[in-house]
Amino acid sequence: MNKADVIVVGAGHNGLTSAAFLAKAGLKVLVLEKNPWIGGAAVSRSLHKDWIYSNCSYVCSLLRPEIFRELELGKHGLHVVPYGGGVTFTRDGDILGNYVDEEVKRREIMRYSARDGDAYLRYSRDVMRQCRLVRSLLMRTPPDPTSWRWRDLTEMRHIGREFAALGPAVLADTIRFHTMSIADYLNEYFESDVVKANLAGSGIIGTALGVQSPGTAYVLLHHYMGDVDGQMGAWGFARGGMGAVSQALASALTSFGGTIKVDAPVAQIVVRGGRVRGVALDNGDEYSAPVVISGLDPKRTFLGLLASGDLDPAIAKRARDFKIRGSSGKLNIALDGLPTFPALGKNNPLAAGDMHFLDSLERYERAYDDWKRGMWSRDPYLDLLIPSLTDPTMAPPGKHFMSVFVQYVPVKVKGQDWTDADREAFKKTVFQQISRYSPDFESLVLHAEVRTPRELEAEVGLTEGNIFQGELTFDQLLFNRPFPGFAQYRGPVKGMYMCGSGTHPGGGVMAAPGANAAREVLLDLKRGNTVPNGWSDD
Question: What's the pLDDT at 60?
Fold first, then answer.
């Protein structure tokens, strides 16, 4: 039987991060991955000759700089290239440019509303204030508010001090912010429909909620709190596609002596005598270890990897009740050339940023209404990028790669499983949306990969295709993520841990859950709460 000190289930970016930190600490670490490739949702794949697709996650900002530094990911080949700005197209042929320069952006907003130009300064200040608060908690283990342990009391005091430092007025705004809809929040600042639409997308990406749904203001914050080269809120492309993040983490792991085994789907965590003993693969092979860390989402971890006899029925119910709702799709497109967008004109630098096509909150909410009826949005929200304008490694010279994130896409079509005909009709809807603003787009398409929640679940292991491994709503954050009693990366069985995005602080290619989980394992080893090197599996 193969032995390790730690087995990590899943070679997604969080699993690789946990594994790398534990291997760096001197433990014998084995990562088991079901697919023939690593990376989970952070992958680069060549699905059309000479093109590289970031076929799931597609931009890099949330990756914590502390992790980048401590694992020396730059030395392992990770290079994040910032891209600037973006644009919202309007139905009347105009655009709202989302420029990098804050003053230029403010003047652009003033074309639609002089009042909104001034309001944008207040909005930016207030959102960044919320970002700084949340960022201070990302690399910390959430406290258990019901516990009298010294560590939990100390952490509660830390959080209390962070909130108290805001002052009464800002604290009241913070509490409101975390429970508001993105529509209500934007309405407090802006009057222009286009300006509000330009900012609203970050509040609903990857979320089975509409712009009028409470809690979506925080989702916007989740997308704003990253940075590239120290610039908070900036976004970038990992050179070579998002798989470059996973490859750098894997390189760091192996440099510390860790091992990755692909084509190794784990069927079950083996439990004997009330503690973890290792894992069993689908093919019956067993690997033993006193510590097993799951990078899978909470439903798959609790209800899939643990035998029913090893799980308290009350805990199983919490896992079943954990909210994971798929609402997103993705198209990856190889282009024979650069499509034209007449509203942008020629050589507009905004073409290198995000392109969006909904110009009012009403259109957003109607798109959500389609999802609630079991259909993909007829007028969808698209987050369209042409990464090859910034990273030429992704397509041959003169050709381009287009990434299109789509909201909203249901898990089932009117209650029925997706068919190939549904996928083709969904693709046609997205193509039509793009073609309204780029007449030559379809003539340049050489290949298109279409990914619905069906593919995201089957290939990546994201339940219902939810990109965050669980909704980022207030009831599933901090010490409630994934649910009370299990928010400190430990499972219900001794020696079992969790490191996926279903744990604090949530989804995105952040790697914080993976690093935090590794820290908890090392703390338990130091305290003698789990078995150190030299253990026996008898």
Answer: 85
Residue 1, pLDDT above cutoff 50: no
- On whether the CB atoms of residues 89 and 437 are closer than 8 A, the answer is yes
- Rounded Cα gap, residues 195 and 184, in angstroms: 14
Question: H/E element holding 231?
Answer: strand 231-232
| Chain-centre distance for alpha carbon 528 | 34
Residue for token digits 């930190």? Answer: 21
Element (H, E) at 321: helix 313-321
Query: Strand 227-228 vs strand 231-232: parallel, antiparallel, or unpaired?
Result: antiparallel
CATH topology of domain 2-45+240-321+463-527: FAD/NAD(P)-binding domain (3.50.50)
Give the least confident one: 227-231, 440-444, 488-492. Answer: 227-231
Q: What gap in Å lies between CA 298 and CA 484, rounded to an integer?
A: 12
Residue whose C-alpha is closest to residue 246's, from 474, 485, 39: 39
pTM of the shown model? 0.93
- Residue 102 and residue 355: Cα distance in Å, rounded? 18
DSSP state at residue 460: I
Picking from 74, 80, 82, the residue whose alpha carbon sits closest to that of residue 249 is: 74
Phi, psi dihedral angles at 80 (to 5 degrees): -100, 120
Average pLDDT along the chain: 92
**Tokens at 358, concatenated:** 């909904």
Helix (H) or strand (E) holding 156: helix 150-164
Residue pLDDT, tens place only, 26-58: 999 999 999 999 999 999 999 999 999 998 999
What does the pLDDT look like over 284-339, one tens digit per residue? 999 999 999 999 999 999 999 999 889 999 999 999 999 999 999 999 999 999 99
456-478: pLDDT as tens digits: 999 999 999 999 999 988 889 88
Inter-CA distances, 270 with 131, 296, 331, Å = 41, 16, 38
pLDDT at 468: 92
Nearest residue to 185 (alpha-carbon basis) of 223, 355, 89, 175: 175
What separation, in Å, do the N-terminal and C-terminal C-alpha atoms of the chain show? Answer: 12
**Residue 227 clears pLDDT 80, i.e. is over it:** no
Q: Which of 153, 89, 143 is nearest to 357 (CA)?
A: 89
Residue 251's CB: how many other CB atoms inside 10 A?
Answer: 19
DSSP 8-state secondary structure symbol assigned to residue 534: T
* Res 229 pLDDT > 70: no
Encoded tokens for 188: 């407090």
Q: What are phi and psi of 448, to 5 degrees?
A: -140, 125
Cα separations (Å) of 138 from 444, 503, 514? Answer: 42, 11, 11
User: Looking at the chain, how many residues does it have?
Assistant: 538
47 Cβ contact list (under 8 Å, min separation 6): 53, 55, 332, 447, 449
